[in-house]
Specification:
By secondary structure, the protein is an alpha/beta fold. It has helices at about 5-10, 60-65, 85, 175-185, 195-200, 200-210, and strands at about 10-15, 20, 30-35, 50, 75, 90-95, 100, 105-110, 130-135, 140-145, 160-165, 190, 215. α4 (about 175-185) packs parallel to α6 (about 200-210).
């Protein structure tokens, strides 16, 4: 099985920045990243939920409730404190620069913020919002959150998968994301956070990204539009 086919088996993209990541090596644990606008009631409940930042399209309590159980652990950031009422000690606030182990896998939090002048107010560095690098299925998987091409991306180290926002407006443009991807040099790069923003222009962005990145670009179908209704 190729790396791309493995990733397709392990990742489900619900659109925008919302993912399910299945740990097929370690007890089939289920991890959700930024669950948002879930079109179905998933059968696959979360062992752990990771939230990159507190904007509604990444931090959605109603979607968290759809996938959470009484045992689900949640890692979020400042601005997500309301989850404490429901989840108590199972909710933990993280900041950039943390390393920890959960459910037998290693997690690293990395910065996610804007540096472009016209975007500085969207994701300020001082908010201490994050991306996550998750060591799972013998791969290092990076979910960048909402971010620009920031200096810290040059020190991420070897990655197998990088999920990068390319939609512009609030995050990197396609051109900026290409530059970031070519510095990060993950084995496989997946564009995210763009269809809602670009609407009818998203295919043009996908093609530009695919051609510009020096390496493998994997274009995922959104789970709801791929005909998979087996939740």
């Amino acid at each position: 099985m190729t790396l791309e086919s493995e990733i397709r088996e392990e990742l489900k993209w619900f659109g925008h920045a919302s993912f399910l990541l299945e740990d097929k090596v370690n007890k089939n644990n289920i991890y959700y990243l930024d669950p948002f606008d879930l079109k179905f009631m998933p059968k696959e409940k979360a062992d752990v939920i990771f939230i990159t930042h507190a904007h509604f399209d990444h931090f959605s309590p109603k979607d968290i409730e759809k996938v959470a159980t009484k045992e689900t652990l949640i890692f979020g950031v400042r601005g997500c404190e309301s989850l404490k009422k429901t989840f108590g000690e199972r909710f933990c606030i993280v900041e950039p620069g943390e390393n920890f182990e959960i459910k037998g896998i290693q997690i690293r939090t990395v910065p996610a913020y804007n540096i472009a002048k016209d975007r500085l107010n969207y994701h300020p560095k001082e908010n201490k919002w994050v991306g996550y690098i998750i060591d799972v299925n013998n791969k290092k998987v990076y979910h960048a959150g909402d971010t620009d091409f920031i200096p810290e991306m040059r020190q991420l180290g070897p990655l197998d998968v990088a999920m990068l926002p390319i939609g512009g407006t609030y995050t990197m443009t396609v051109e900026e994301a290409i530059e970031a991807a070519n510095v990060i040099r993950a084995k496989v790069t997946i564009p995210i956070h763009y269809k809602r923003l670009l609407e009818g222009r998203y295919r043009e962005a996908e093609e530009k990204f695919r051609k510009g990145v020096r390496g493998t670009v994997l274009l995922l179908e959104e789970y709801s539009e791929a005909g998979h209704h087996n939740f």
